[in-house]
Amino acid sequence: MNLPAALNLVEPLDRQTLGERAYAQLADLLMSGRLAPGEKLSLRAAADVLGVSIMPVREAVSRLVADRALEVAPNRAVRVPVMTAAQFRDLTKVRIAIEGHAAAEAALHRNEDDLAAIARAEAAMRDESEKSKPDLPRAVELNKTFHFAVYEASHSPILVEIIRALWLKAGPVINLDLRANPERLAKGDAIRFHADVRRAIAAREPDPARRGVAADISGAAEVILSRGGLAD
Amino acid sequence: MNLPAALNLVEPLDRQTLGERAYAQLADLLMSGRLAPGEKLSLRAAADVLGVSIMPVREAVSRLVADRALEVAPNRAVRVPVMTAAQFRDLTKVRIAIEGHAAAEAALHRNEDDLAAIARAEAAMRDESEKSKPDLPRAVELNKTFHFAVYEASHSPILVEIIRALWLKAGPVINLDLRANPERLAKGDAIRFHADVRRAIAAREPDPARRGVAADISGAAEVILSRGGLAD
DNA sequence: TGCCGTGATCTGTGATCACAGTTAGAGTTG
DNA sequence: CAACTCTAACTGTGATCACAGATCACGGCA
Prior knowledge:
By secondary structure, chain A is an all-alpha fold. Chain A has helices spanning 6-10, 18-31, 43-50, 54-66, 85-109, 112-130, 136-152, 157-180, 183-187, 189-202, 206-227, and strands at residues 71-72, 78-79.
């Protein structure tokens, strides 16, 4: 081991296997809502698009199936699960409990770097949504960045991982709806809640942080539920 | 479809694919602590034991890797992750928060059937652990049964699923330790906490239920941490 | 005797083939 | 013109083969 030690630091910790990359791509598709609930996904077609054989896609899909982000129907058809209103309510309740808890933990354990990252993410999203013609996909991405900046500040990798899995499930429903009805973005609810959350975390106040995140989540959920586009 | 309709009800909802069965077997091995942290797992060897080709094992393993219940080292070796003390503390904190929350929800939403299942599970574990020579693997299984009877009473499938994933991570550490040092079982801490939890849920008192589960989890965790067998 | 190079044998990853089951569409029949 | 049937083209699942990289033990050199 007489190599320049600096190289060891640059070395990426995650193995760049094809299956990993396929997983990342599919997960991003789900989180950003570019895959609609009920949409079918062919392994071979996906493999064609990604330019690999079906093997890496199979691995990625089986991971997503394990997380219930995809499901394979008894007819052997892989698709994005269609969520009933009851399931969506359950998911929302769990998200409020867990993401709210993460925000509270963030308020307790955040350091200055976390705070800077959260402020940066909040500013970026505010700027984008105050534009006269906001870039919707970008806004979705910035929203994700803000939320996870908060959750990362809890310094609990396990919590962050759980929330990631929740977003995988919620993404198709929420962001698909947002794409269809972008007016909520202009209403500025999210922007206000984000500011509340940032302030609470800066002030080390766990309960207001929890409430801010809860309001953000339930606000978006209520819009979707009131639209009545969900099954059952 | 002129078959006896009753058969459709018996039909298991989960497709009985070989990969599914391999996953179930490996998951059970992990939860019950029969796979120790750091232990390596060869795909081909496992496939041999299960009597199938490596394909179903690959699917099962990639699911477990997605849940962080297994990890593939940069050397391409699949093994049970070795947990540092810090990681175990994080896991314990998250478990207390989430499983405590589930118990509180159970107190609010349980029905009589849930209550009966919880009481049955509690009695079974109490009987087993009060024996002069308790069957350890059976006690581990009964402990799991009791906890999940509680969590199921929350009537939140998503919450239960998350907790399952947490147990997959905690199983190797906790149950391996229990196998090595069974005296804690005789001490009866768990038995007492279980009774507290059952009573609280029966009385529809969320906070005592949460505290009971939290005490159970942190009690077991402290024993393990004080033993000092964890890395770092 | 101690150390280093080297090859056989493992590892997981990826591709390809085989198969049973489903689906959809074309062709035919009523 | 509508409905039914049958076939052809899909679907995921499983097995097998090929490959690059890591590990480890054996043998040769210092």
